[in-house]
């Protein structure tokens, strides 16, 4: 079901983050500066995180440049084996979390809102990233499922980064 073990062997994270650095950081700096309260963390969701390599690389990129706020990330994937691998290699267990969750499940948005509430953060993710998953959804589940997927992400996020495929 959509899992791709050893994905980052074929798509190195350095190549992927190279394209994100300017635009992603600029957008998140704007979000951070627009908040009146300096306390809340920036909270990001990575949908289809696989083994977490890109999630961790984005986190490292963000904390090296956005020092005014704590950064918290949640990576989700439908494959429990990939999530187990992500949790094993995670050096940032206080700020980066990985959970098995299928965003297409009916209760997924509510489960994500509950997770946000437990973090004491904002009611929505500041940004959600969706890398290398839209084609799988579109091919395997169809046009309407892709629309539902994008709506679900939009319902729990202020901003979205979607990799077109």
Structure characterization notes:
This protein is of the alpha/beta class. It has seven helices and five strands, in the order ααβαβαβαβααβ. The protein has helices spanning 7-10, 13-34, 53-65, 80-89, 108-119, 134-141, 143-155; strands at 42-47, 71-77, 96-100, 127-130, 160-162. It has a five-stranded parallel β-sheet with strand order 3-2-1-4-5. The longest helix has 22 residues, at 13-34.
Q: Structural class per helix/strand content? A: alpha/beta
Low-confidence stretches: none
Q: What is the H/E string?
A: HHEHEHEHEHHE
Count of distinct strands: 5
Approximate strand percentage: 15-25%
Distance between the termini: 18 Å
Keywords summarizing the entry:
165 residues; five-stranded parallel beta sheet; alpha/beta; 7 helices
Short description:
By secondary structure, the chain is α/β, with parallel strands linked by helices.
List the helices and strands and how they pair.
Layout: H1 7-10, H2 13-34, E1 42-47, H3 53-65, E2 71-77, H4 80-89, E3 96-100, H5 108-119, E4 127-130, H6 134-141, H7 143-155, E5 160-162
Parallel strand pairs: 1-2, 1-4, 2-3, 4-5
Helix pairs in contact: 2-3, 6-7
């Amino acid at each position: 079901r959509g899992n791709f073990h050893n994905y980052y062997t074929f798509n190195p994270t350095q190549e992927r983050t190279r394209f994100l650095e300017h635009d992603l950081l600029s957008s998140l700096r704007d979000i951070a500066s627009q908040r009146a309260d300096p306390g809340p963390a920036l909270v990001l969701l990575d949908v289809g995180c696989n083994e977490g390599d890109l999630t961790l690389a984005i986190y490292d990129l963000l904390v090296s440049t956005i020092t005014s706020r704590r950064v918290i990330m949640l990576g989700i994937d439908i494959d429990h084996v990939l999530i187990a691998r992500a949790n094993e290699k995670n050096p940032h267990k206080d700020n980066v979390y990985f959970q098995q969750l299928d965003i297409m499940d009916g209760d997924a948005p509510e489960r994500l809102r509950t997770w946000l509430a437990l973090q004491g953060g904002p009611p929505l993710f500041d940004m959600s990233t969706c890398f290398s998953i839209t084609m799988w959804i579109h091919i395997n589940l169809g046009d309407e499922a892709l629309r539902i997927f994008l709506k679900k992400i939009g319902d729990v996020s202020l901003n979205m980064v979607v990799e077109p495929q």
